[in-house]
Amino acid sequence: MAAITATFSVEAKWGEMDLGLTGKAALVSGATSGIGLAIARRLGEEGCRVAICGRNETMLGAAVDELVGSAIDAVGVKADMRVARDVRALVERTVEAFGGLDIVVSNAGTHLAGRIGEVTAEELAAHLETKVVGAWELARLAAPHMHKRGGGRFIVVIGQAGKVPQAGAIASAVVNAAQHAFVKSLSDELGRCNILVNAVCPSRIATPLTGKLALHNELYLGRSLEQQESGWGAEVPLGRWGEPEDVADAVAFLASERAGFICGANIDVDGGHQRSIL
User: Fold this and answer.
1) Cβ 243 vs Cβ 175: under 8 Å
2) Running DSSP on this structure, what letter comes out for residue 258?
3) How far, rounded to the nearest angstrom, does the alpha carbon of residue 127 sit from its chain's CA centroid?
4) Is the whole-model pTM more than 0.85?
């Protein structure tokens, strides 16, 4: 009986863990749906005031309404991360609304499928501008505001192709690998200012994006989406896909006071799917 009592005590302690995020000002790019929206919601639930952005004004409005309807202090800014003036306006609007900036999550961008003969240089450049150049400008403009607050968190969401290059995703492999180099270099530069830079690397997460994708090695087998999804789950040691909330939980941890000595790291959220040891 004593052992059972101890177990309940431990569970209560963990259930009451404070991540130290109450009152923090957070900005999440690419947050009108899927992983980005889940991250914004999770940070808001932990007490953050949250600014989100997206290119689609209708989706942006709906996302803000959802967050506000959940009693989260949220604002939305229409912004294209490929446009420098939009990024500047996004940071300025966030600081104006919340009086400062503590946490930035760079999540804008999508997966760009296709072999080298199928992806044009213009498409590759746009992909790079969104996920690397946009994140560069976001960090450049946000860092001074974080420095004024005595530190902060800059977190980049990076897809698996950056660690596991594959046929049919060469553009994403190149761009995502650049994101990893950016995170590591930036963490070295900003760490001494107590601005911790890290990456979260999702794979096999069920989102509106993955519903439109087909596995490169099954395109020619004539399998249905349901069959492909079943195959994806079989490749994951946990035997299932993850949810956007799984990624959001990892981001919230990295944004928290509990991750105060994690810097320049990349954390896989994939149920064990990725086989890379790096």
Assistant:
1) no
2) G
3) 16
4) yes
pLDDT tens readout for residues 219-238:
444 556 565 556 656 677 77
Residue 265 confidence (pLDDT) above 70 = yes
Task: Judge contact between 173 and 212, C-beta under 8 A.
Answer: no
Calculate the average pLDDT of the chain. 87
The CB density around residue 3, as the number of other CB atoms within 10 Å, is 6
Radius of gyration from C-alpha coordinates of the chain: 19
Q: Which of 119, 112, 98, 103 is nearest to 29 (CA)?
A: 103
Return the structure tokens found at 63: 């996302």
Residue 90 corresponds to which tokens in the numbers above? 């996004």
- The Cα–Cα gap between 81 and 88 comes to 10
* C-alpha span between 19 and 254 (Å, rounded): 10
Quickly state the pLDDT bin for 275 (edges 50, 70, 90).
confident
pLDDT tens-digit series, residues 212-221: 555 544 444 4
d(CA 12, CA 80): 43
Q: CB of 45 within 8 A of CB of 56? A: no
Which of 55, 172, 162 shows the shortest CA–CA distance to 119?
172
Q: How many CA atoms lie within 13 A of 78 on its CB side?
A: 7
Contact 250, 240 (CB under 8 A): no
Number of other residues whose CB lies within 10 A of the CB of residue 253: 16
**CB neighbours of residue 173 within 10 Å:** 20
Q: Which two tokens stand for residue 152?
A: 């902060």
What residue ranges define each of the domains in the chain, with the CATH number in brackets?
A: 20-208+243-268 (3.40.50.720)
Any residues with CB less than 8 A from the CB of 213 and at least 6 apart, and which? 111, 113
Identify any residues that bridge with 50 across adjacent strands, giving them in sequence order. 26, 74
